[in-house]
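Box 3.1 — From sequence to structure: Heptaprenyl diphosphate synthase
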Amino acid sequence: MGFDFFKPIEEELKIVEKSLGENINTDIRILDEAAGHLISAGGKRLRPAFALLSAKVFRDDLEYILPMATALELVHMATLVHDDVIDNSEMRRGTFTVKSGWGNRISIYAGNYIFARALALAASYGRSDILNILADASMKICEGEIVQLLSAYDVTKGLKNYLRRIERKTALLIAVSCELGAALCNVHARQIEALRLYGHYLGMAFQITDDILDLVADEKVLGKPTGSDIRQGVITLPVLFALKHSPRKDELRKLLSSPELCSRYVDYIIDKVLDAGGVDYAYEVSTRFARKAKKQLSYLPDVAVKQNLHDIADFIIKRDY
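Predicted structure (token representation):
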């Protein structure tokens, strides 16, 4: 994500980065190394950025928001550690995963530890409403991951299943980040809701773009192998479109139902999805979500940072990583 969008909060993001390391500091060396590796691997830090930008709409001093910004990134990181175990992933962000370096058992405990640290930070505000929002989101993220597992290689699942999956997998935590950034400023409920919806629509656009990139991006830029979703049996929006509209939909159905065939014919499947116009269709849908996100900004006060939120929505559908 371009740092120009985050210019108003770049100093705060540096503090969050430092705080991430401080919050997973433990005397147990192997846990410290495993969790520390995840932080040093970097990342877009979108969730803390959205919390800080949302708060910046209403206040200039963001010191009060920093623990929450850190907590949101820790929640996200905990889900990544567990995801890599479930997906058996060796690479993430261009480097080896915690699962690859330390094995499944350490990874599960590392993820649990990071998540517990996030909850402790969120609890420091002494506000049950904030904790409830975070806890509810965390439960729904888990439910979304289970739904994704259960629907792997299932070509009978349709658009509704896909949208619910990506809402819980990605959009929810971005929406909560925007919502909590505003809620900690104690502003009008409609403005908090506008930022929550902005984050929701933006998160949907972000995940659909991610699903497009899984098919067409450069592996070096993406930081993981192209076609990972297909290999894992995750039926994404471009693939759903091809399953309905491709002249070879029956063949695609057969290939995508089989873990072995998905791995063997991943490049062929990608070609057929592209030929069917699956990527073009998914791009249209992500653009629609980005447009809905921008509409929510009209409920916010006219401050400079509002333009940053607007520009992020434009960028998300054009990114190549």
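Summary of the box: The first helix runs from residue 10 to 23.
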